[in-house]
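Box 3.1. Reading complex inputs
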Amino acid sequence: MAHDQELDASGLNCPLPILRAKKTLNAMTPGQVLHVIATDPGSVKDFDAFAKQTGNDLIESKEEGGKFHFLIKKC
Amino acid sequence: MAQKKLAIIATKGSLDWAYPPFILASTAAALDYEVQIFFTFYGLQLLKKKLDLQVTPLGNPGMPMPGGMEKFMPVIVTALPFMQGVMTSMMKAKMKKKGVASIEQLRELCQEAEVKLIACQMTVDLFDMDSTQFIDGIEYAGAAAFFEFAGQSDICLYI
């Protein structure tokens, strides 16, 4: 799926993927989509919780090739 | 929705116990919480410019060691002078390998996210510390000031 920005958080552990994603989203405009790649298995639940609490839209969350991919739309 | 608030009291000054306050504070800030950490007693070590945080196996039966060594090692061995240094280097190496942030890094992220870091003035005086030892951008206050924020907080943690 198309995205406006990509953040590779591979190899980073909790809470760094969330903190980096937040920072990247801050610099984006509403409606834009961020693609986050992570290897921390805890990030699956974390990104779900992050989206719910910040009001951003988690469009997609999937595992592919041993990595976790998240598409977050900034609201 | 009103902004949520998290108040933390950080009282411990070892490497392992330095993590919970900074991880929770930085994450809460990323979730749009307003956050304050009040550092008192040994927690003040976490505000030093030059961090020298150690982890000790002494009196900690829950600390995992390589190869399950903790099950066989007599407690007195954990009291040997070199043990603390060895355990600290091992812990730091492991954290680096697993992509766990350093305390310096997490602390910086907290400051970037406008987490308010407050040093307990009474303990600063008690231990003859002074502001030149601490990082910039922190505040100094007492118990009453903490309650002003903690009293309105949604979550309040004592670590």
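In summary: Strands of chain A lie at 5-9, 33-38, 57-64, 67-73.
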